[in-house]
């Protein structure tokens, strides 16, 4: 029976493709393909339906389906286009087969439906799996990239570094901050680390606990942390939560924190009298120095 049904489907291939194209075109607005050009849409439809038919006929291989899904992912075609295309193909193929059967009975229709599902389901499974694996890989890479960018340790002067934090701090990110912080302190030989939380929207008990853990770990390495970027609303939250920051130096701005860091490292900023001459000298534009 299965072989006979396949022969009916393959014999009526042109009709199935024609009806499939009509149905899939009606779904452009709901499967996020409306912005795709008509030429590209038609070309891709032809390839898609041929991949399905070849797979049913036995001419296709898992690698062909994988190559097709890879192209779809690379070009940014939505998964809804794939699932809609397969479901429409199932419907059109079933209607075509039943149309060529004289007075089909209920039990026979059920058997036909099972056979058509057995053709389509493996393709759906493989395509969806390919999309899922690809997305998981992309998300994983993006997560790593965001983590690397979310907790940089920036040396600004000998023995002084800054770690600007932006966004919400959860347990996973706090662990990454800790690792980056300790590694950076050793790499840059830092004596003082300015942790800037200006871009952290919420400082609750959990965030405060993670910050204390990080600063305590830095202290064990012989360095000191200064917490900067304490906004009024954060200060009020800290007081309401009863969080004790007495052992951790805090400043409202990065500038004030940097001045404290200079003091801790026995450095200071000096004003020069002739700024223009000093800048020229630094840039190598001092003519007097060139003659010497």
List keywords for this structure.
292 residues; alpha/beta; Globin-like; Transcription Regulator spoIIAA; 2 domains; elongated
Biggest β-sheet, characterized? 5 strands, mixed
Structural class: alpha/beta
User: Unreliable runs, pLDDT <50, ≥5 residues?
Assistant: none
According to CATH, the fold-level topology of the largest domain is Globin-like
Task: Tally the structural domains.
Answer: 2
Helices, by number, come to 12
The separation of the N and C termini measures 100 Å
CATH class of the largest domain: Mainly Alpha
Relevant CATH superfamily of the largest domain? Globins
Q: In one word, what is the shape?
A: elongated
CATH architecture of the largest domain: Orthogonal Bundle
Mean pLDDT, all residues: 81
| Proportion of beta-strand residues | 5-15%
Q: Please bin the fraction of helical residues.
A: 55-70%
- Helix and strand element order: HHHHHHEEHEHEHEHHH
Sheet with most strands: strand arrangement = 1-2-3-4-5
Structural Rg = 33 Å
Structure described in brief:
The protein has helices at residues 2-11, 13-26, 38-57, 62-75, 79-99, 106-150, 171-187, 205-220, 232-241, 254-264, 275-282, 287-291, and strands at residues 154-157, 160-166, 192-199, 224-228, 250-251.
Structure description:
There is one protein chain. By secondary structure, the protein is of the alpha/beta class. It has two domains: 2-147, Globins (Globin-like, Orthogonal Bundle), CATH 1.10.490.10; 154-281, 2-Layer Sandwich (Transcription Regulator spoIIAA), CATH 3.30.750.24. The protein has twelve helices and five strands. It has a five-stranded mixed sheet, with helices on both faces. The model has no long low-confidence stretch (mean pLDDT 81).
